Amino acid sequence: MNATTTRGALLAALACVLVGGSFTANSVLGDYPYAGGQFLRYGLACLLLVPLAGKGAAARLRALTLRQWVRLALLAAVGMVGFNLAVIAAERTAEPAVPGVFVGCAPVVVAVLVPLLDGRRPQRAVLYGALLVAFGAFAVQGWGRTDGAGIAFSVCALAGEVGFAVLAVPVLRPLGPRLLSATVCAVAALESAVVGVPADGTGWLRRPDAVEASALLWQAVVVTVVGFVCWYMGMQRIGAERATLFSGLIPVAAACTAPLVGTGSYGLAQAAGSALVGLGVALGSGALTLPGRGGPSVIPATGRTPPAATFRGNGRPEGRGDAVSGMPE
Question: Does residue 241 sit in helix, strand or coil?
Fold first, then answer.
């Protein structure tokens, strides 16, 4: 791994660890209206991200096509609002481990789907690494009680996790990580309001108490602002396939932090699962290579690999440094 891919891997890892550590915050928001909480979380995150969007942000937004705006709306609806709603709905009839296991399969789906959308074959190292990550996530979380509805909503959560990465690929280049994060947060806040008003009426938004306010602030500032920007900066450098491998760190981080607040334990199964996740990430990200082969290459998000060019990131030809021409940071 070179400096660019190492930095991208660290950013993606940090983002997923923050998400995994946020499960404690989610546990204290059970009585707060879902749509109202999402509205406050994403609305505040958008306000904090706008000053960080950089120069020319308005011009970049005006340059987006209708198709790109539709993609952004789908990204917010599927990967943010829909994902969180699916997890909550699944946990009504299933133990939390069940949607967690399904979401842990996201690296496998992305490792297959992204190359197919690009018209190429899945990379063997990334696919093998994704399978190890999925098995590791299962070992960390185990399986729990569920029914048909719990499984159905868990599948929806998996679709949301996949959509959060895949739908962002074509709009990451023109917007950059910070402006993309600010834009999808604004769209997600609006979508939450649209869902909340008909679903909960006048009670869709209320003043949170001190504990709920602290949890919402953590989700908005740390998980959304810091986590989203780190995630998309990591994806910008190493591609969606390899970045999604790090989502296996979400259950690992959750399992590691659970004993600190007395909501779980970390035992031999969690340790073994964490080791499998680490091995899968190392193999798929290129830190380990299969015998007789080099590390996995990453194809530019906007097209196929040009002839006679070897890429080391999303559109990064070898020898041209870390910055990508025309791709905002």
Answer: helix
